[in-house]
């Protein structure tokens, strides 16, 4: 195309041309003028940065006088033959300030002088350009180009790559590209990048034979790849109310959107390299599978872990109050929740009634409930993180039972009958004297005194006057479940003895008897206490009781002790 001239006054030269500092450049140029001019002499001028002589632009080259601007002194030479309409200009020892526009002016004598508007932009560079595709993906082949202008006829550039040795499957080859007579040496580096190559710097070096010129250019590899989760916590067991930090560290380019999920519910997300999920005061509701998900344009990865929240048993729930009739079956459920599952035990007065290991509920089954099962129970649940207990009452309703201590005692002029009966609801006790056709009960204060302890009612009937040998007294105890009758036995022996020794002797004998009884019973009690304390030590239940749990045995003992010490005084 250099030969084809667009019009009579026209020129051609590359619009852009580049060269390295210190080397040279040859700007190819061709000009034309109307053929009818037939000039006798042809001169040419190269101007720097302005086409107009009136502006006095620096003269780069002037064939008529060889007077040039000092910046170009000894640096320029016309390679072309003006008579062949060839205005090719060479500039040597290029320095950065020579970057700019170069205009050619033809001088054909007289008024036939003309500065062509076509001009060249010269760029003086000091490093080669490395061009990479807009997107470089890991694991797919890429080609980097190192562009080196090659417009100095006397100096040929040599291009070498630097720091490319570690790149997978790399290969290098060169080619020359021409664009409008401006030449570029292109060196290609082909390789398959890996994610590890991201951020790596490769270089391109330009040298010239027999010179010390060396120009380096560098490019940092920006390799896109799918996120990879480098580190995430493994499954963990945590104690309730503590703080948990779950860390997810991700390698990706570009940055990944990191998301923490619990069972598909998004808890936290951020565009980052790592994301920490902080859970304060964890509760059992936060137990579950946690997933860290990292995603960018090129793919995604996820990793999951199980967070197990360990906690002490909840206060067991039991049937609030159970009322049953003797003989019926009773089922009581004690249930709780804990992690790990607890040991559940049901106690009644320190005795283990039922127990279950590593289950959340315990069923106490009494196929035939007896009045002895009546009382307060505790259900205790325990694991290594703590224990909780709940109390419940089992109330057994039963028909009256007349107790052994029921009897009559006859003194000289009084008869005292004791009738003790136990039932739930508490019994109503009546004394019947069939021979006299009389029935008395506690409403008859003159004869009957009644006292109640727990389910036991003790009624004392006192009769004064002659003791009738025919007298027999029946005690009747009654509640909704039935009535029990029992004839009360007489104990006459004592009254006979009292008759023989007389009233004074009787008082003395009574005092001695009390003393003996107290001595014997106290000694026995001491012995019992010693025995029972050693018994308690060895038979201690394995589970520790909570502060709420109290025994009643101690109270009974101290009471009987007091009575005896009162009596012995
Ligand atoms: C102009 O002159 C240069 C230097 O002698 C030469 O390399 C080039 O081929 C010439 N151009 C044309 C179009 O003849
Ligand atoms: C480099 O210099 C050597 C010795 O001076 C010479 O033989 C050789 O031709 C030169 N090479 C170039 C490319 O100028
Ligand atoms: C999770 O990992 C991070 C970093 O290794 C650690 O600091 C943190 O304590 C871990 N969290 C748990 C619950 O183990
Ligand atoms: C932890 O959570 C429980 C239940 O939500 C709450 O009662 C307790 O006060 C919390 N403790 C702290 C230290 O925030
Ligand atoms: C996690 O990855 C697995 C397989 O790679 C996929 O089946 C699952 O759906 C992913 N989970 C989430 C929450 O993206
Ligand atoms: C105790 O509660 C459980 C479940 O609520 C029930 O099956 C059981 O019959 C109850 N027991 C009594 C005695 O009420
Ligand atoms: C069980 O009965 C006793 C005596 O009547 C009472 O003091 C206690 O509070 C009851 N306990 C429960 C759990 O109802
Ligand atoms: C006892 O009294 C009832 C009625 O009050 C009477 O029917 C009965 O005959 C009497 N029995 C005797 C032995 O007196
Ligand atoms: C006691 O006896 C009287 C009459 O003797 C009777 O009215 C009353 O109902 C009896 N009380 C009970 C608790 O049975």
TrEMBL record:
Domain Ig-like: 128-214, 227-308, 316-397
Biased composition (Basic and acidic residues): 556-569
Membrane topology: Single-pass type I membrane protein
Domain of life the protein comes from: Eukaryota
Keyword Disulfide bond part of the UniProt annotation: yes
Residue stretches spanning the membrane: 497-520
Chief place of localization: membrane
One Pfam assignment: C2-set_2
Annotated stretches, region: Disordered: 550-569
Cell compartments where the protein resides: Membrane
Keyword annotations: Cell adhesion, Disulfide bond, Lectin, Membrane, Transmembrane, Transmembrane helix
GO annotation terms (biological process): cell adhesion
Gene Ontology MF term list: carbohydrate binding; sialic acid binding
Gene Ontology terms: cellular component: plasma membrane
Record-stated family: Belongs to the immunoglobulin superfamily. SIGLEC (sialic acid binding Ig-like lectin) family.
Protein's name in the database: Myelin associated glycoprotein
Organism of derivation: Sphenodon punctatus (Tuatara)
């Amino acid at each position: 195309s250099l030969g084809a001239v667009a019009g009579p006054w026209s020129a051609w030269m590359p619009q852009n041309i580049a060269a390295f500092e210190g080397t040279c450049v040859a700007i190819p140029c061709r000009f034309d003028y109307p053929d009818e001019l037939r000039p006798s002499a042809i001169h040419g001028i190269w101007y720097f940065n302005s086409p107009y002589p009136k502006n006095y632009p620096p003269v780069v080259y002037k064939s008529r006088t060889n007077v040039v601007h000092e910046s170009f002194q000894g640096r320029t030479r016309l390679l072309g033959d003006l008579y062949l309409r060839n205005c090719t200009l060479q500039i040597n020892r290029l320095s950065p300030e020579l970057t700019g526009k170069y205009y050619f002016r033809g001088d054909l004598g007289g008024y036939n002088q003309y500065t062509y508007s076509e001009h060249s932009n010269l760029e003086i560079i000091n490093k080669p350009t490395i061009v990479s595709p807009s997107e470089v993906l890991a694991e797919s082949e890429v080609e980097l180009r190192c562009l080196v202008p090659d417009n100095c006829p006397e100096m040929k550039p040599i291009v070498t790559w630097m720091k490319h040795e570690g790149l997978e499957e790399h290969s290098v080859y060169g080619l020359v590209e021409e664009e409008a007579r401006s030449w570029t040496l292109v060196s290609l580096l082909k390789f398959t990048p890996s994610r590890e190559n991201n951020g790596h710097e490769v270089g391109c070096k330009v040298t010239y034979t027999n010179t010390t010129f060396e120009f380096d250019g560098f490019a940092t590899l920006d390799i896109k790849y799918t996120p990879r989760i480098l580190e995430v916590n493994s499954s963990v067991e945590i104690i309730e109310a503590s703080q948990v930090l779950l860390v997810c560290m991700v390698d990706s380019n570009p940055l990944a959107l990191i998301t923490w999920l619990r069972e598909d519910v998004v808890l936290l997300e951020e565009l980052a390299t790592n994301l920490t999920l902080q859970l304060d005061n964890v509760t059992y509701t936060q137990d579950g599978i946690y997933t860290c998900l990292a995603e960018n344009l090129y793919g995604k990865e996820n990793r999951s872990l199980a967070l197990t929240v360990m906690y002490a048993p909840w206060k067991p729930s039991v049937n609030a109050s159970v009322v049953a009739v003797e003989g019926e079956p009773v089922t009581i459920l004690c249930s709780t929740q804990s992690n790990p599952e607890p040991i559940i035990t049901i106690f009644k007065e320190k005795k283990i009634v039922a127990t279950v290991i590593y289950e959340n509920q315990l069923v106490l089954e009494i196929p035939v409930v007896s009045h002895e099962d009546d009382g307060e129970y505790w259900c205790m649940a325990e694991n290594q993180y703590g224990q909780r207990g709940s109390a419940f009452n089992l109330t057994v309703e039963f028909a009256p039972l007349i107790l052994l201590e029921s009897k009559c005692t006859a003194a000289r002029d009084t008869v005292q009958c004791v009738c003790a009966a136990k039932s739930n609801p508490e019994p109503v006790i009546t004394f019947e004297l069939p021979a006299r056709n009389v029935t008395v009960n506690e409403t008859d204060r003159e004869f009957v005194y009644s006292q109640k302890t727990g389910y036991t009612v003790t009624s004392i009937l006192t009769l004064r006057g002659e003791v009738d040998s025919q007298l027999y007294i029946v005690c009747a105890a009654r509640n909704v479940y039935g009535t029990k009758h029992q004839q009360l036995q007489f104990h006459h022996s004592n009254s006979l003895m009292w008759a023989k020794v007389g009233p004074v002797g009787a008082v003395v004998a009574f005092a001695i008897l009390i003393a003996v009884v107290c001595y014997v019973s106290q000694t026995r009690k001491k012995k019992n206490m010693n025995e029972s304390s050693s018994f308690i030590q060895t038979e201690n239940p394995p589970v520790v009781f909570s502060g709420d749990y109290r025994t009643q045995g101690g109270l009974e003992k101290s009471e009987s002790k007091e009575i005896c010490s009162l009596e012995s005084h």
